[in-house]
Amino acid sequence: MGDWMTVTDPGLSSESKYISQYTSETKMSPSSLYSQQVLCSSIPLSKNVHSFFSAFCTEENIEQSISYLDQELTTFGFPSLYEESKGKETKRELNIVAVLNCMNELLVLQRKNLLAQENVETQNLKLGSDMDHLQNCYAKLKEQLETSRREMIGLQERDRQLQCKNRNLHQLLKNEKDEVQKLQNIIASRATQYNHDMKRKEREYNKLKERLHQLVMNKKDKKIAMEVLNYVGRADGKRGSWRTGKTEASFFLRNEDEMYKILLNDYEYRQKQILMENAELKKVLQQMKKEMISLLSPQKQKPRERADDSTGTVISDIEEDAGELSRESMWDLSCETVREQLTNSIRKQWRILKSHVEKLDNQVSKVHVEGFNDEDVISRQDHEQETEKLELEIQQCKEMIKTQQQLLQQQLATACDDDTTSLLRDCYLLEEKERLKEEWSLFKEQKKNFEKERRSFTEAAIRLGLERKAFEEERASWLKQQFLNMTTFDHQNSENVKLLSAFSGNFCQTRSCVSEHSSISVLNTTPEESKPNQVGRECTNQKWSVASRPDSQEGGYSGRSSTYANSHVEKDDLP
Amino acid sequence: MNFSEVFKLSSLLCKFSPDGKYLASCVQYRLVVRDANTLQICQLYTCLDQIQHVEWSADSLFILCALYKRGLVQVWSLEQPEWHCKIDEGSAGLVASCWSPDGRHILNTTEFHLRITVWSLCTKSVSYIKYPKACQQGITFTRDGRYLALAERRDCKDYVSILVCSDWQLLRHFDTDTQDLAGIEWAPNGCVLAAWDSCLEYKILLYSLDGRLLSTFCAYEWSLGIKSVAWSPSSQFLAVGSYDGKVRILNHVTWKMITEFGHPATINNPKIVVYKEAEKSPPLVLGRLAFPPPRAAAGPLSSTESKYEVASVPVSLQTLKPAPDRANPRIGIGAMAFSPDSCFLATRSDSVPTAVWIWDIQKLRLLAALEQLSAVRCFQWDPRQARLAICTGGSKVYLWSPAGCVSVQVPGEDFKCLYYKTESKGSGPRRSCEAAFRCGQAPASESRPC
């Protein structure tokens, strides 16, 4: 349709009109002129048209043209241009009115015609485009038809091929089945043949064996013998008894008895086990039942309120059942009635529970659907935060585990030669041992330090003593000189000597005192020195206790401190 | 784990006494008995020929040495070194010899399974049992030593005889509905006997002590059937390993299958711990590298350290493709062992020879899988605890416990662990003896108890 619309171009149409105009010029017949006139009337009158009209009717041929026009008009059914002749052979007069009427009518006609023509033209165009369109459609449909026909043919071909294939496969399958059947038959026949041959061979073999047996055993083979230094006693201490005809039957009976005893014992054992298992299961059932009842009982008011009859009655039944079955004696009975009761009640309760859970599920889903808009959003955020936090935690834990694993693997790698379980234990022991060793070395070092300090102290004390001695000597010599200077008498000399000896004795005493003092001071220093260390350890102990149990912190601390004080007191007493 | 010095050993004959006090080992025709604690030689016996089989009596008082080539059995007493006993089977030949549970009778199977001779050490009596069946496991005693079940074959049909061990009287005799009985085994409680058909047919039958058929079980038809059978120590479960690579566990109440353990080549479940043995060779010092390398260094196992790594799932295990044109294909569950507390089951699938699967019986699921670098030769549980020892024929012993896995290098040059034995009974509360044995390529082999 679009194509058709574009065809009606105004410029083009006007051009075609000019062309038609031009052609009308060449043709000079009055009929064609008329039609041309009709055609061109829509165009505003131009000089060209005037000249054309003048060419048709000239001064000379007025009469002729009038008569021509009259003829023409009368043939077209118009009233004659001439007046009605009243007399014969009189010259007919041109009736102007008629001419004008005719002209008017012609003009009207022409206008009508023009309109009709226009309509027809548009219709023509429309129809033409319709035609085109339909032709296009037709072509298209034809094409489609062609392709679908081709497709159909292709499909038919494929179908045929597939069917062919299918037939082939069916044939193959049949063949294979036949083959299988044949092979199975062959196998079966071969098996029977084989079995038969085997049997035959075995019979032969048995015969041979029998023969060999006779040959080998009945020849009184001297070689078949047992050499024993002396016969040994039986393991159970009994004497071996010989079988005789009389005792044989009793032996047999005894053996039978024993066998049945063993079997009976086994069955009894198994029955006991099964009983125990049964009892356990019953216990579990009972517990389950109780829990179910306790679970369902708070809920039972609701259905009653709602007059929900079915569940209500069932629950009341259950209550009755529970009352009955709670008696312990019922559980020991394993008769069928109790079992039935039990299973029935459990089944009922299970049904109730199931329906309840389903109801809850429904409620939950409803709530979920209803309350999705406001509260859930917040909780989701919380959830996300929580999950993030948890993920972080998990990551940390994973890392920790990884490091631990690495450590473990290292440990295992170093000592994987040993037994698996004892190895691990050994590892721990070794670790502990190592730690203890370290501690021990630390202690040793401390001890050494103390020793060193002590030595330095003693040395200092000794030095002090020596200095004191020197000082004392100096003093003595000074006193001596003083004395000698003061006294000139000989008899006094002896006294002087005495005094000197007394001084020296005094000196000796003081010296020992000093040494004593120094040793004491040294000994005193040791607890003083060790004290901070101990305090420190106490602190660590305290810390440990805090870490392990925060609630018992006070008691533990006080107890520890008191003991420590005791020990300190003791230590003080020691030197 | 401590290791003793290396002892000589021939044809892997080394056994602890049932009471755990002594260790008997054979070197050619000599039998050496050592104290299991101090490893000092207690007794030394000389047999007439190379010893091919050694067995302690149940009371640890006697040792039986079988010399199959000569058809001879020699018995030695530990209490009286001068005491001796020699049993000659003569021209009948000898293929197997074993003690009865009372330790006073010896059961000798003659060549071609003509008969079983029961020799008594207490009296001069000799009993014969005819028609024993030559099969995988034809003789089985109950744990309490009261009864003996024996597979028999008469007129192309399988029978089982139950005999009372105290006087060798027949208690029950019944035919089994089997094509070709392959083995019988008592439950540890001695009340149920499991009998299974040969691998051509999947069939296991359970008989009561009085000969009643309790149940039969058949998992599938046509393809190869049962390869191994194991009772749990509690007699509660019977594990049946078959050629389809699955272990089926039967219960003792209904004798129906509880569960089925498949052995897939890939492990996807992240709950399962997969231990992979990884080798790391020591750093090479270029200047010291000798050419050609010395013999000790030539073996890659002796020079490298190995450790376990926990592999991350999914793990695909190395599988062997079985050769379809050969008999006894390397598929199916070849070995199974329950732990002494019946909590774990260790299995080996022959198509995945480097792996050991450990199943949790309480949860009935796979607990762990161990993949070794070389094929697993044997594994054995510690009799006291849930600890599994594995030997692969290399110079290491591998130990698994629920806590983890370790590989232990056995010191010594060119030492290959082929067998690993552990035994403990009575004596000290915490004592177990473990020995790894070296293969017998060289004439003198060694054992290494520890």
TrEMBL record, chain A:
Localization terms from the record: Cell junction, Adherens junction; Cytoplasm, Cytoskeleton, Microtubule organizing center, Centrosome, Centriolar satellite
Alphabetical UniProt keywords: Cell adhesion, Cell junction, Coiled coil, Cytoplasm, Cytoskeleton
GO CC aspect terms: adherens junction; centriolar satellite; ciliary basal body
Superkingdom, taxonomy of origin: Eukaryota
Entry keyword Coiled coil: yes
Region (Disordered): 296-315, 524-575
Biological process according to GO: cell adhesion; intraciliary transport involved in cilium assembly
Coiled-coil residue spans: 131-218, 380-407
Family of this protein: Belongs to the ADIP family.
Protein name in UniProt: Afadin- and alpha-actinin-binding protein isoform X6
Lineage: Eukaryota, Metazoa, Chordata, Craniata, Vertebrata
TrEMBL record, chain B:
One family name in Pfam for this protein: WD40
Gene3D superfamilies: YVTN repeat-like/Quinoprotein amine dehydrogenase (2.130.10.10)
GO CC, alphabetical: microtubule organizing center; MWP complex
Record InterPro entries: Centrosome-WD_assoc, WD40/YVTN_repeat-like_dom_sf, WD40_rpt
Listed SMART domains: WD40
Protein's name according to its UniProt entry: WD repeat-containing protein WRAP73 isoform X2
Organism the protein comes from: Balaenoptera musculus (Blue whale)
